[in-house]
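It is time I had a proper look at our fold encoding. Can you supply me with one protein entry, sequence and fold together? It will help me judge whether the discrete encoding reads sensibly. Leave the record below and I will have a look:
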Amino acid sequence: MKTGDQVVQELPWRWRVQGSIFVVGGLGFMFDAWDVALNGFLIPLVGEEWGLSAAERGWVGTANLIGMAVGAFAWGGVADLVGRQRAFRWTLLMFSLFTVAGAASPDFVTFCVFRFLAGVGLGGCIPVDYALVGEFTPARVRGRVLTAMDIWWPVGATLCGLTSAALLGLGGWRLLMLVMVLPALLVFWVRRSVPESPMYLVRRGRGVEARAVIDDLVARTGAKVDPWRLPEPRPTPRLTPRAVAAQVAALWRHNPRITSAAWGLFLTVFVLYYGALTWLPSILKAEGYGDYAAFMVATLMTAVGILGVVVSAWLVDVVGRKWVIGLSAPLAALALVLFAAQLEIASAAKLWIAAYGFLIQVTIPALYAYVSELYPTELRASGFGWASTVSRVGAGFVPVIFGSVLWPHLGLPLTFAVIGAAVLLAVLWMARAAPETRERDLDSPAV
């Protein structure tokens, strides 16, 4: 007899059922992208208002990204311990409140503190959203759906660029921050209607709730389902520092090769991505572009990424997750090196930054889908969350290090080449250490 979570995994896909959870989860992901992309636009504007040095300007991005690293760790663990649905709502609420506070900051230090706290809230969106959407999605379309989730990222980053360019001169950087908050609060309200993950409920012994959610899914999808059972409940852990530490240990005990591959990929790919995204407007301004022109070229990079996500969502189920990541990530690094090498030739620079924007958005959604499938249900959110934490910690220091050390001393081409070499090493280790997850059952043992 099948278990309830197997029934959920075998249901037909319906846009009005699982698709609505995909949309609601994706909108939160969109604000994550909007906020990260906003760092690149805030750096020149905040720097000019408070007369900041290049190293100080880097803290605009670093404070926010380090906050997201803390949030990815904290909320991934919270989601595994107290439920996806609660964490699903609270992440956006925390982000909204501290973004408003940041827009009212009287000085740079206060601004950085509030950007850090807003990042803590928003950092939980990716691991929580992916865990929840993945656990509602049928296995046969899970790869495409989880990969397509990333389309919300270039959409959010592109909206950020268009909005920032349109509002230039109207209200300064404070207005750019405030325009995010109202729609984020509306999404927070909509998220109240999303049910708890049935896969989470059955593992926490909440059988009545789990059966109600699964029966509702079966009825709404119109599926014909044979009798099924709930698995034996498991003890619910308490949210303590010891429990969180035990989660980390469990990830490495589960499979150290998989965990090291996941962490290596997340770290190198996102150092490459956040380095470019955070500093691109400033790089272009240093090359002589005005604010509007710099913002629009940065927006071109993110807008082309929408096509990259579509291509990635198709390829992951055709050639597999590992091939998509293994080819697109090194090519994205190469495109960024060529952009930096030909920066003085405007047409060539725009061509290569567009190629980079496309390729990196082929890589990232495949990476999200891949890592979210590498762990069993009880470790999925924390496994993804810790990989995201590692990437955000590493990438979080990129704005400061990039502005004060790498760019001034190595130059742009060599800086991006060094990061690209690290990406290539991570891809090679993935090829050897981690399995392909295409069409694999979420809770089947890794091989």
Summary: The chain has a mean pLDDT of 85. Strands lie at 2-3, 228-229.
